[in-house]
Amino acid sequence: MKKIVYTKNAPAPIGPYSQAVRYGNLVLVSGQVAINPATGQFESGDIKSQTKLVMENLKAILLEEGLSFAEVLKCSIFIKDMNDFPVVNEIYGGYFKSEPPARETVEVARLPKDALVEISLIAGIDA
């Protein structure tokens, strides 16, 4: 059975999608960009500040389902400039203390709100 996941502690969707969807033992979290959940405004800072906010938004959505980054199975990272990869990777890595998930990182021409980074993930719930 499909369940829509929503928390006020992460940005409200800016289009026709959900923050996340729980389906069985999976939670599929939509791509997050650096939108401040308290203001709904895009934070157009540097790659470091954007990545930190994206990871915190993902964390808030996971917490809504009682999960942490330890249950993340797969992440997709989209970055505007592959030269920013070392900074993104360092911040991202700080959220995965052990057994990091599968992942891909792709450079893209443009992201929503002209963001520098967007990250989505899939987490698993033990039955």
Q: What's the structural blueprint in terms of helices and strands?
A:
Elements: E1 2-5, E2 20-23, E3 26-32, H1 47-64, E4 72-79, H2 85-93, E5 102-107, E6 117-124
CATH H-level superfamily title: RutC-like
- What's the alpha carbon Rg, rounded to whole Å? 14 Å
Number of strands: 6
- pLDDT average, as an integer? 97
Report the major sheet.
6 strands, mixed
CATH class: Alpha Beta
What would you note in describing this structure?
Pfam families: Ribonuc_L-PSP (PF01042). Belongs to the RutC family. InterPro entries: RidA, RutC-like_sf, YjgF/YER057c/UK114. It comes from Imperialibacter roseus. This is RidA family protein. The longest helix is centred in the middle third of the chain and has 18 residues, at 47-64. Helix 1 (47-64) runs parallel beside helix 2 (85-93). Strands 1-2-3-6-4-5 form a six-stranded mixed β-sheet, covered by helices on one side. By secondary structure, the chain is α+β, with helices and mostly antiparallel strands. The radius of gyration is 14 Å and the shape is globular. It has a single domain (2-124), classed as 60s Ribosomal Protein L30, Chain: A. The chain has helices at residues 47-64, 85-93, and strands spanning 2-5, 20-23, 26-32, 72-79, 102-107, 117-124. Helices cover 21% and strands 29% of the residues.
